[in-house]
Specification:
The chain has 20 helices and 29 strands. By secondary structure, the protein is α+β, with helices and mostly antiparallel strands. Among the domains are: 92 residues, 2-Layer Sandwich (Aldehyde Oxidoreductase, domain 4), CATH 3.30.365.10; 278 residues, Aldehyde Oxidoreductase, domain 4 (2-Layer Sandwich); 138 residues, Aldehyde Oxidoreductase, domain 4 (2-Layer Sandwich), CATH 3.30.365.10. Strands 3-5-1-12-9-10-11 form a seven-stranded mixed beta sheet, sandwiched between helices. Strands 7, 8, 13, 14, 15 and 16 form a six-stranded mixed beta sheet that branches.
Length: 778
């Protein structure tokens, strides 16, 4: 039995964080430091005709003003980001195909040179003695633009004659691939008794992290080496990207990521401002720092979602799914930073937990004159679950089959596992029916009709929604863990992941403590510094415990074996006559023993475990949301939210509940509030501050009922599946299904996100006037 795995221990890192003792990037200060401020494009699309820096350079306190031409003349190159999806998670399953042409992959210059491609793109940087002097001087940089027509919407960008974002991609389609068997899906759709077709939108959302982005660059002229301090989701990717952009060897670059106030995906990638401050530090010979304002963040942070997909679902006369086809277009923005990640994830996971015999997905990544999109919590999986679960509710209306019963008929039976979907994923575990039934029971689904009647008596419309889900977390396919036993009584773990709120210092310590028989307080985690973290994939896609946890188990096994050899030598017994207990080795039948830490005083006790490859896992579960709608205003109140999640063996249930709750709140935000909206004609971001962009507040959400269950996976020694994205993945569908259910008496069958009070009130008005068609029968 585990001593610590499975226990809801309080996070040890919270003691310093809640007391204000965390150290984020902006808390660092260096002698003789100076400040950067960026000149950003006010246009979505324009040629850069000329940049005059004379007036700005003459401002007292300004050291220099640098442009993209300066950057290139110093021999530096654009940032190379993640590659497009090229293969399946499992090499034995169907791969992505690109019938027409290979995906576009353009390195991103950190300062625009000839053309700007979105509002907020940096074109110059001012370096000054103070932050105020730098900000004042950017207004004096005179940039002459030739304004060009922009395109902001992915659908518009694919139209003939639309303005091109990059000359090399005249039709703006940077990626056009397919996954699954097109012919088989089309044949099955034509033979289906019922075919539903619907177009869904998943709107763009802002990455509203607690901590604004910040970066510090330092150059050591004596060693010709660079240092970057910047919060991220893993230093190894930043390290490699920075060295490549600066065209210097890896050993001349060091990257430190201290405490990080939120990641969610966008902080996985090296970003323009980070490269600039490091380069500028060499230029001025002093440390250069930059911290984003919230206004800058809305314009320049990587954003999430923004897709359009047309789905077709075929069912037989008994309501059993025969085929699924999707044509999906993702808005990548102006650069292909990480936007291919959600495209690939969407196409893999779309079949979800249902026994769909035939499926096909066409996936396109479309360039527009907007800020970059990329992976945001779930990265394509919440969108896929939203679209399929909404389509199932529409199918229930169309066929007259109860929503729950329709799902039950199509869930993959537990006795058919392992089950391979037509899109190539193989689920080794997951009791999908039990999860759904458990969620329905905890939510008191059967008692809802009475609550609906009570709400009606109060003049409110009540609705309830259900969504099942599965994930396929992948992430960077490399991780490394080093474990060292220190004679001072501490076990030090070095890992290539980076906590952005996941509680690694606690949960990793629980695993190591169980493996070595020490207490979690005796385990110290070291991350976020390439001086000691020589490789690793970072934290994203539910990968940290799945990969790093597996390697901790392996490294601790090596530690025990190394200590046994030392103990055999010291105790003068055969190694096979030793037994491990109470953090040490004892000679059988004697009272002679040598503790782990005593062994470390005798010899070096350390281990290293590396892994390159895939450890597939499939978190799964179900969610039920209950809402009430005020018809006069369209205001939505979330009354209940129930989540049942199989994330594998819970290492720390308390931390998992926190992760699930955080994901639910983010999902609620997208479902009913958030929209990063660009104006079609100008490409201007209309929701560019928290005055225009709403995120959930504490009083917008109810208390959650959260239940953890497990159908064991054999894919890793800890039986971990992953809980970081469990909360958000089914949430969009559960919330919107509930709102639409409340509006069904008015013949309203669908609403696009966000289902704001304004949008709901407009739909009610049109529904009452008879204008709104019955979507499910169209």
């Amino acid at each position: 039995m585990s001593a610590y795995i499975g226990r809801p221990l309080r996070r040890v890192e919270d003691n310093r964080l809640v007391r204000g003792n965390g150290r984020y990037t902006d808390d660092f200060a260096y002698p003789d430091q100076v400040y950067a401020a960026f000149v950003r494009s006010p246009h979505a699309h324009a040629a850069v005709v000329n940049i005059n820096i004379d007036r700005a350079r003459a401002v007292p306190g300004v050291l220099t003003v640098l442009t993209g031409a300066d950057y290139s003349s110093d021999g530096h190159v654009g940032i190379v980001h993640a590659s497009p999806p090229t293969d399946a998670v499992d090499p034995r399953t169907p791969a992505f195909r690109y019938p027409e042409r290979q995906p576009f992959d353009q390195p991103q210059l950190p300062l625009a040179v000839d053309r700007v491609r979105h509002v907020g793109e940096p074109v110059a940087v001012v370096i000054a003695e103070t932050a105020a002097q730098a900000r004042d001087a950017i207004d004096l940089v005179e940039v002459e633009y030739e304004v060009l027509p922009p395109v902001a919407d992915a659908g518009d960008a694919m139209q003939p004659g639309a303005p091109s974002v990059w000359d090399a991609v005249p039709d703006n389609v940077a990626l056009d691939g397919e996954h699954g068997d097109r012919h088989a899906a089309e044949v099955a759709l034509r033979a289906s008794a019922v075919v539903l077709e619907h177009e869904f939108r998943s709107q763009r959302i802002a990455n509203a992290q607690m901590e604004p982005r910040s970066a510090i660059g330092i150059y050591d002229s004596a060693t010709h080496s660079y240092l970057m301090v910047a919060g991220s989701q893993g230093v190894s990717r930043q390290h490699a990207g920075l060295a490549a952009a600066l065209q210097v060897p890896l050993e001349r670059v060091r990257v430190i990521s201290p405490d990080v106030g939120g990641g969610f995906g966008p902080r996985s990638f090296l970003q323009a401002e980070q490269v600039v401050v490091v380069w500028a530090a060499r230029r001025v010979g002093r440390p250069v720092r930059w911290t984003s304002t919230r206004s800058e963040a809305f314009l320049s942070d990587h954003q999430g979602r923004d897709s359009i997909a047309k789905l077709r679902l075929g069912l037989d006369s008994a309501g059993r799914i025969q085929a699924l086809a999707a044509d999906c277009a993702y808005n990548l923005g102006a650069h292909t930073v990480g936007g291919y990640v959600p495209v690939g994830n969407f196409s893999r996971i779309l079949c979800s937990v249902y026994a769909i015999p035939h499926a096909f997905v066409r996936m396109r990544g479309v360039l527009t004159h907007t800020g970059c999109t990329g992976p945001f919590r779930g990265a394509g999986r919440p969108e896929a679950m939203f679209m399929l679960e909404r389509l199932l509710d529409l199918a229930a209306i169309r066929t007259g089959i109860d929503r729950v019963e329709l799902r039950r008929r199509n869930l993959i039976p537990h006795d058919q596992l392992p089950f391979t979907t037509p899109l190539g994923l193989t689920y080794d575990s997951g009791d999908f029916l039990r999860n759904m039934q458990r969620a329905l029971g905890l939510a008191d689904w059967s008692g809802f009709p009475q609550r609906r009647e009570e709400a009606s008596m109060r003049g409110r419309l009540a609705g309830i929604g259900l969504a099942n889900y599965v994930e396929a977390p992948v992430g960077a396919p490399h991780e490394r863990v080093q474990a060292t036993v220190l004679a001072t009584g501490t076990v030090e773990l070095v890992a290539g992941t980076q906590s952005t709120g996941q509680g690694h210092e606690t949960s990793f310590a629980q695993v190591a403590a169980d493996q070595l028989g020490v207490s979690p307080q005796q385990v110290r985690l070291v991350t976020g510094d390439t001086a000691v973290v020589t490789s690793g994939g970072g934290t994203h896609s539910d990968r940290s415990m799945r990969l790093a946890g597996t390697l901790i188990v392996e490294a601790c096994g090596q530690i025990r074996e190394r200590a046994r050899q030392v103990a055999a030598q010291v105790l003068e017994v055969a190694a096979e006559d030793l037994v491990y207990a109470n953090a040490g080795w004892s000679a059988i039948g004697t009272d002679r023993q040598l503790s782990l830490f005593e062994a470390a005083r005798v010899d070096d006790i350390r281990a290293e475990a590396k892994f390159t490859g895939r450890i597939p896992a499939h978190p799964t579960g179900a969610a039920v949301c209950e809402v009430e709608v005020e018809p006069e205003t369209g205001a939505i109140s979330l009354i209940r939210y129930t989540a049942v999640d199989d994330v594998g063996q819970p290492i720390n249930p308390l931390i998992l509940h926190g992760q699930v709750a955080g994901g639910i709140v983010q999902g609620i935000g997208q479902a009913v509030l958030e929209h990063a909206l660009y104006e079609a004609g100008s490409g201007q971001l209309l929701s560019s501050s928290f005055l225009d962009y709403a995120i959930p507040r504490a009083d917008d959400v109810p208390n959650f009922v959260m239940d953890l269950t497990e159908d064991p996976t054999q894919g890793n020694p800890l039986r971990v599946k992953g809980g970081g994205e469990a909360g958000i993945t089914p949430c969009l569908a559960a919330v919107v299904n509930a709102v639409v259910d409340a509006l069904r008496p008015l013949r309203i069958d669908h609403l696009d996100m966000p289902v704001t009070s304004e949008r709901v009130r407009d739909a009610i008005t049109r529904g009452q006037s008879g204008v709104l068609p019955d979507i499910a029968s169209s």
